[in-house]
Structure formats: C-alpha cells, structure tokens
Amino acid sequence: MRKRHSHQKKLVYKLVILLFSLIFIALNYSNKQTTTKADDEVVVTPKFTPNKPPKKVIGIWMTNGYGLQPNPDYYTVVDTPVTLKTDAGRSVWTAAAGALDGVHYRWWQSTDGTNWTAVAKANNGYKKNFTVTPTEVGTVWYQLDTQYYNYFTGLLLKTHIYSNVAAVHTLADPVDALQLDVTSDDDYLYNTSDKLSNTTYAHAQPTPSDATGTITWSVDNPDLATVDENGLVTANSNSLSGTVRVTATFTNNDGSSIKNYVDIEIGGGLDDQTVKSGSPATFTLQGKTGGDDDDGSSGTGTVNVDWYKYAPGSNTRVKVSSGTDTTYTTPDTTMADDGSYFQAVLTFTSGSTTKTITSNKAKLTVLPSSEPDIEITNKITNDTYQDSANTDQLLNDSTGNDSITYHDTLTNKSTEGILKADSYVIPMLPGTKVNTVQVSGNTLSSDDYQIIPNSDTGADDLVINLDDFSHGDSKDIEVNTTVPDITAKQSFQFTPYVYGVNYDGNVYRQEGLDEEINYITNKVLPKVENIDYGTITAFSKDILKYRPDSLNSPNGIVTADDERRDKQPLKVFVTQNAPLSNNNGDVLPASLRFYSDGNYSEILNNKTQIYQTDNGAALKSIAWDKQNGLLLHIDNNFAIAGQYTTTLNWSFEDSL
User: Fold this and answer.
1) Nearest 5°: phi and psi at 446?
2) Least confident span in 188-197, 288-297, 335-344, 444-453
3) Domain 179-267 has CATH 2.60.40.1080
4) Considering only Cβ atoms within 10 Å of each terminal Cβ, which end of the chain, N or C, has fewer?
C-alpha cells in the first residue's frame, strides 16, 4: 500500500540634586613612565602617569582604574575611522563619597610622542569612546583623562583616572587578518541579583597585529550572558548557570572574516560538593577573589568573609566561619550533613561605608561509606525504526507509535553492602505508554510499578519496585513502551537510577549512563511568506507586477522543516480560493499566475503544482528568480482604489 501524506497551510497575501562629597585622590603607577613604540623607535612619554590596574575582589572595585584600557595599537587606513574604546571606574569607596559627581572625558594627542595637545570637543575629544578618522599615513598617540567631579565642589577636587597610551597607526594599504586569538579578563562570572562579578571584557587580537578590519561580538546563549559591541560580557541575574561561548568575528576590508571564541562559566559562586561520610568537604568561591595590583596594596577598604551552614530541611543559617578566607572546609562529615547547604557572605568596609554580597547556596551531598556498590548498564532500542546514528544510549528520529524498549542490568558489586527497599527509576517522555515491565524474566503486574509525573524534571518517572539487593545479586530489567504523538521536534535527555537504603539505614542512590531520545514529527512543517505586490496605479494595465527583491532567489517563498523519515518525492501545490478583493467586495481586475520559463498557469480555482523534490531529498526551500513563480498580472479593466487580498491554499503531498 502506498503512503500518502497531505499537509496544507493557508496564507493571506496583502497588497500593501546639593551635597559636598568626600574626595579620594587616585593613586598612580609612579612619577613617570616611558614606553617605546616600534615606529622608528619613538620613545613615548605619556601626558599623565597611567593609573594602575584596579584592585578587585569578586568584581567589587577597591581602587580606581580602567576595566577596559584602549588597545596599545590600532591600525587603519586613510579616511577610515577607528574607535578607541575605554571603560574607567571608581572604587566602591570613591563612588560612594562622590555620589553626586559626574563623569567627564578629556582626550590628549601627540604626533611625536613627547608634546601633547588637548583634542577639541568638536573632534570627539570629550567622548568616552574616541573616534578618529586619519587623513594621512603615520602614527598619532592618544591618552584619556577620565574625570569625576561636580560643579559645586570646584574643579580642584576632581578625581582623575588616566589611561595607558594608545597609538593609532595609519597605513597606506589595508592588511587582512589571518588568525584571531580571543581571551577574557575573567573566566567565571556571577549570576546573582547582588550584581557581583557579573561583567568582564573579552578581547580579540588578530594576526598579523596590524590588521585593519573591524570586530563584532556575539554569544551562543543570551539567557546566560550578553555581550555588547565593546566586548563587555554581562552575566544574567536570574541564577541561570552554565557555560557561555563568546565569539569574536574579525571582518577584513575585503569582506572576508575569521572567527574564534572564549568560554566563560556562569554561576552563583559556589559549586555543589559530594563527599563520602567521614571525609571533609571544601567549598571555594569561584572567580577572581584577589586584587590585580602588583604591589600587594589592599586599597582603602577591608573584606570579611562569613561562611554559613543550612541544616538539611532548614531555612535557618548558622555561622560556621569568619575571616578573610574565600575557601571553607567542613569538619569530617556524617550522614546527618547530607542535604545541607553552605553560603558565603562578603562584607566590604571603608569608614562608614559598607557593602554586603551574598553567594548562592551550594548543596552538600554525603554518601555512606558502608554502602552497596550498584553497577548499572543501560541501553535503549527503537524496535520500529533503526537510524544509522543510533547508539546504545542514543536514539534518533523516533516518532509517534514507535516501539522503544529499555534494557537495563543492575549488579551489586559490593562485597558486603545490601540495598533494601530499593526502586529503579526510568524517566520517560510524558505520555509514553508502558506496555510491559520484566525483571529477571518475570513480567510484573501494574501493582509492582507506577508512573509518577516529576514536576522538577518534566518527565514521567517509571518507578519499578525491586526486592532486596544483596551483594553479588544481578537484576535484568526490560521495559517495552510506545511513543506518544509527537507534535514538535524535541530532544529528551534522561538518566535512570536506583535508590534505596543500606543496612545502616542510609539512603543510597546510583545513576546509570545518560541517555537521549530525539523525537521528530515525521511530517513536513512548512512556512510560507506573505507577498506584497506594492501599489497599482490607475494607468497600470496589461502588465506584470513582480514580487519584492526580498522574496526572490536566494530567498525562499517557502521554507520547511522536513522531518520525514522516509523522504519520498514530495509535490507542492498552490490554489487561489477567490479573486483579489477589497473590504467593499470590489474585485481587482488581475490574476495570480505561476510562471515557469515563460509559460504560466492561472491558479484561481486551479490546483497548480509548483515544485517537486527528488526521492530521498528533504524539502528545504522554494525560491524563484524575478521572472518566475507567483506573479500578478494586471488586466485591462479599470481598477477601483483599495487594498486587495486573497487566500492561497498550499498542499504538500507525497507523490508515492
């Protein structure tokens, strides 16, 4: 018997404040610094001694400085702008004392590395990010003075933060990048609402270093973190954890591009810990917990870390340690510690200014030392459809009504541990029908297992009741199921596990191998674009109206997610249900036609084939050049002004 699938989609086309502040004087590197640049061995003397890198603890600024310095060297060509990007900041203490201060930017430039002049406001000299458009080949040096002050305290009480010197080299010809290295200032960012160390800068360095292109940034998961045009990565404040990939794209002047990336971990500061009973557990604050200044100075404030413990099932915390350590090690654990949580609270103090930051709560799992040792081997098979990429723990292209069997073996490899009151759990896609459950060859009745919806994971947990598990015992489990109706492509990852208690009464749990079933609808899921043929004048007669360029090849009128396992030849038809008409019922003297190489077919009340796939090929896109496909022919009759629409029916049918 031949299979036949018909999928239709309807589409409507439309033609148409006063307070004096305490002032903290910014600390500088030294009295004077010089740097040597490669251009003719020019010795560059900064206009101002640059500030040291800021000292930060968990993202809190203890001293003034620049989070983002301008690059030492920029390369461009004549008449091509280049932007020196910066980001200065004040210590938490300076910012608190100068809460009314505004930030001001003053750029200086030098053409010889010694004599400096201020950049005029009209030439972007008062902007944070400084854009310059060179008009001749050569090198110009720049330095930024970021100033914090308000007009009531007077100009003598400014806070100055001086940047490093940056050179802008203007070349005669563009230079293409051949390689790109991407780094970040931090490899861990916090995701809490306290706004901890939740930002860092990513940097991209091309090879050769004098490449003259531009850099853009992106992330693979904006729910975890975002990145702006300057490479500033900001973690989410919604406690979402994971690893975000930050990608830099360097585009050369000729339009070619290269990419590279850096991975940054996003978390709440503490990781969960699992230890054996009788052993201590160590919790460590992640990220940069010390300063960046090279002389070991601690800035103007102090940092204290209080560690707290939440007993299992309790929302009350008890202080267990206080000091400056960003790592806490528990006493030797017992099973009573299982399920407890630990948390760090950092307090920053300077004078009367205090800021408190709280980490996430990290869970402590304690496993019994005298316990069974259950080994789980598990695999899954699709008895209806075999995909060449399937493995023992992965099934691809499973769909509704498929027969899937779970084959699991549990073996107690302990020499003395006994598992009692144990159960085996297999998480399943909700709606999965359990046909039979067998344990060591015996078919269980429905009283010996149950299906429990799990609100935490979204799965239906099949819980199989097992007998006591003595050392050396082995149990073979086989569960046959039927896949429910699949209405959308999805992936279901799960991990079966056994749990119970050992002879000491301690809870035991062991997980099997991670498994995954990828489900598909086994259907064609098309998307059809609207077409607007624009405005028709009263003098438009006996002409063709074409689609806008955005709907011509290579852009498709129809795109599709073809999830069919058996990709037989597929025919695509279109039918116009009614003439083009407006809200008053007036009919446009025009007809929609399907053109193909000069020939056309009227599609009004005429089911017209417009496309067919080859056997084994997936339907991905249907695209036409300007002269072909659906075009609108204007007849000779007079057209009444209005907006005209019609409805098309699209059919997607297997031809076998």
Assistant:
1) -65, -15
2) 288-297
3) yes
4) N
Tokens of 524: 């064609």
Give the separation between CA 81 and CA 133, rounded to whole angstroms. 4
**pTM of the prediction?**
0.51
User: DSSP letters of 430-462?
Assistant: TTPEEEEEEETTEEPPGGGEEEEE-TTT--EEE
**Mapping DSSP to helix (H, G, I), strand (E, B) and coil, where does residue 157 land?**
helix
What CA–CA distance (Å, rounded) separates 198 from 268? Answer: 10
**DSSP string spanning 477-537?**
EEEEEE-----S-EEEEE--EEEEE-TTS-EEEEE---EEEEE--SSEEEEE---------
Task: Please say whether the beta carbons of 284 and 330 come within 8 A.
Answer: no
Average pLDDT of every residue of the chain? 87
In this structure, the strands spanning 420-428 and 433-439 are unpaired
| CATH for the stretch 35-171 | 2.60.40.10
> Which tokens go with 2?
């031949």
Residue linked to tokens 């860092």? 200
Give 374-519's CATH code, choosing from 3.40.630.30, 1.10.10.10, 2.40.10.10, 2.60.40.740: 2.60.40.740
State the CATH class of domain 273-367: mainly beta
Write the pLDDT tens digit of every residue in 593-635: 999 999 999 999 999 999 999 999 999 999 999 999 999 999 9
Of residues 349, 355, 352, the one with CA closest to residue 301:
349
* Separation in Å, CA 598 to CA 319, 541, 593, 631: 83, 19, 11, 12
Domain locations in the chain as residue ranges: 35-171, 179-267, 273-367, 374-519, 532-654
Q: Which has more pLDDT, 4 or 447? A: 447
pLDDT tens-digit series, residues 205-242: 999 999 999 999 999 999 999 999 999 999 998 889 99
| Coil, helix or strand at residue 70 | coil
Q: Give the integer Cα–Cα distance in Å for 550 and 554.
A: 9
Residues recorded for the chain: 656
Residue 242 zone, left/alpha/beta (φ > 0; ψ -120 to 50; rest): left
